[in-house]
Amino acid sequence: MSITVGQTAPDFKLVNTEKQFVTLSEYKGKNVLLLFFPLAFTGTCTTELCGVRDDIARYSKANAEVLGISIDSPFALLRFKDEQKLPFQLLSDFNKEAIASYGNAYGEFVLGLKGIAKRSAFLIDKDGVVRYAEVLESAGDLPNFAAINAVLEGLN
User: Fold this and answer.
1) Which residue, of 63, 114, 124, 137, is most buried by count of CB atoms within 10 Å of its CB?
2) Is 14 a domain residue?
3) Given pLDDT bands bounded at 50, 70 and 90, which one contains residue 108?
């Protein structure tokens, strides 16, 4: 099932790099930018998340939390977060539950890996409604951050 603009964002319960559970519903009252990415330590994923890191003031000013989600373990994500100095949470969807509920999995990724998250961006408003949804077929492409930021500005 693909997530579309105007629907309520599916809740999830995932583990962060501090080994604590995080749910989407705990962010009610804030805007949330969910960024699903295929794998930590890869070129495009690093470029994407470091770009968000470098523009984090925009998201803070817009009362928006950024959450990065991949199938990597919380341990690998902690190292990635520390090495890249990412000031937002990275969540492990090791069991691929959020990926399934957002309908953004590759049937088959590189090296025959299955169920890896497609690079995708979902902007969720303070009421939990999806206001922007973009799922990319090519892992080498980046989300349209100009469009994301325009929608975000309109939410405040």
Assistant:
1) 124
2) no
3) confident
Report the C-alpha dihedral over residues 51, 54, 60, 64, rounded to 10 degrees.
10
CB 52 within 8 A of CB 88: yes
The residues pairing with 69 across neighbouring beta strands, listed in sequence order, are 36, 91
Beta-carbon contacts of 97 under 8 Å, excluding residues fewer than 6 positions away, are 12, 14
For residue 59, the domain's CATH number is 3.40.30.10
The residues with which 23 forms a beta bridge, in sequence order, are: 13
Structural domain count of the chain = 1
Q: Which of 45, 91, 135, 139 is catalytic?
A: 45
* The token pair that represents 145 in the structure block: 């951050």
Q: Tell me: pLDDT of 1 over 70.
A: no
Q: Is residue 64 part of a domain?
A: yes
Phi, psi of 16 (to 5 degrees): -95, -175
What tokens does 100 get? 């399934």
Residue 119 C-alpha from the chain's centroid: 8
Residue 146 within a domain: yes
Measured between its terminal Cα atoms, the distance across the chain in Å is 29
DSSP type of residue 53: H
**Is 50 marked active-site?**
no
At 129 the pLDDT is: 97
